[in-house]
Amino acid sequence: MIINALGGLENPNAGPTGGPSATSRDLVVDGRALDDARASGLTAVNVTLGYVMGDFPPYEHTLDEIAVWDDLIAAHPENLLKVRTADDIRRADRDGRVGVIYGLQNAVQTGDDPARVTTLAKLGVRVVQLTYNPANQLGSGCMDPSDGGLTPSGRDIVDALNEQRLMVDLSHSGERTCLDAIAHSTRPVSINHTGCRALTDLPRNKSDAELRQVAERGGFVGIYFMPFLTPSGHATAEDVVAHLVHAVNVCGEDHVGIGTDGAVTAIDDLDAYRVRLAEEVAERARTGSGATGEAPDTLPFVPELTGPGQFHRLARLLAREGWSDDRIAKVMGANFLAFADRTWPA
């Protein structure tokens, strides 16, 4: 199985660049995107829906985007399957479909009302990231200089997520908020898309202490295909391998996977894409939602790991590193599935 702990299904050539500034109504999930996803061997992907940033009412916008994805999956039953349980991922694998996991990249939409977590769970949300880059009412994002830690509201929301058996995702969080949430949660937690700060000291990457504590409590860490993997911002496939190797050395081979933070379909016209990307980077900087390491000339993907062959290409590189077939299978999807078995309701 190939399970992407954070990614996309859109065709970026037929819509916006993707990412948190795009809404689900903007993204184009067309025949090419679906064909590419299936050709890649993708079994399931955690897609970002709902409020992340921008001028939307967070909770209402999230409910609207859930409805958009429900309609999209209903329109493509032969290709897509909504994932509520770990067994749904297994069913997608048997059926040759792509499992769609509903995930949030900001929990600001919960407000101070844990009951909203129950509503989101009933609607099929299965992954809830506590913060994006800035702080919210729950805690500090990685770009909050105060690194204030998990708030009382944050503890209440983590309790509600535990009760509903949803994944508590600590990607983008500040270090103190991350460590506080790991300690407070009664269930294993995840960092679904990150890099290793020991290799590249940028805020979006996680320290060894964060990685280790997630693993020690039975959690999951996904490594992304992002510019933050290298100080230059021009990440290569070898950088992805290096961060995976480090994460496995810190966490053990049973707790690491991939969370690419990108779609499967490759960009056709990079020149036009760079124009749109520069506008998005500028807007993120203006609103305080960007992260150190973003720049107009740093592509938010690894050029060598794009298109339908990206996952198999990575597997070959890991084999060249001397990894066994069993370890590669764990990192490409089996570890996320095992974590889902431990976390989600049956």
From TrEMBL:
Cited PROSITE patterns: RENAL_DIPEPTIDASE_2 (PS51365)
Pfam families for this protein: Peptidase_M19
Full protein name: Dipeptidase
SUPFAM superfamilies: Metallo-dependent hydrolases (SSF51556)
Superkingdom per UniProt: Bacteria
InterPro entries per record: Metal_Hydrolase, Pept_M19
Organism from which the protein derives: Actinomadura gamaensis
